[in-house]
Design brief:
Elements lengths: L2 H28 L5 E4 L2 E4 L2 H25 L3 H19 L7 H21 L11
Antiparallel strand pairs: 1-2
Length: about 130
Amino acid sequence: MTNNLLLGRAAVTAGAIVVAVTEFALLHSAAGVDLAVRSANSTRQVTVASVIVATAVAALAGWALLAVLERRTDRSRVWWTSIAVAVLLLSLVLGPPSGVGGGAKATLALLHLSVGVILILGLPRSRPAGASR
């Protein structure tokens, strides 16, 4: 993996984290949305730390899958994009409905969508020109 590729994908990952934290700050702090989720029999608050960790985990998992696919197939972008879109849709079905209240559900949906779109559009395109598989 070249330095340009690493830097490009790291920048996409960092960008997704910055966007998620900014959205969280604007909607939670500035707009007063109480970001809480239900899991099993408990309710817990969504914190900025959990937003950062969830975004980083999603980005690194996507990056790892893309790297594996790039080594194994000539259609890595097609496969990766298909899988990434399916994972995003699944996350929208499972994540935001667990929000407590309409504001939390909408905020969670926005966070999932924005991070997903940034990663789906950015990670495969961070590969240097002429090096696509």
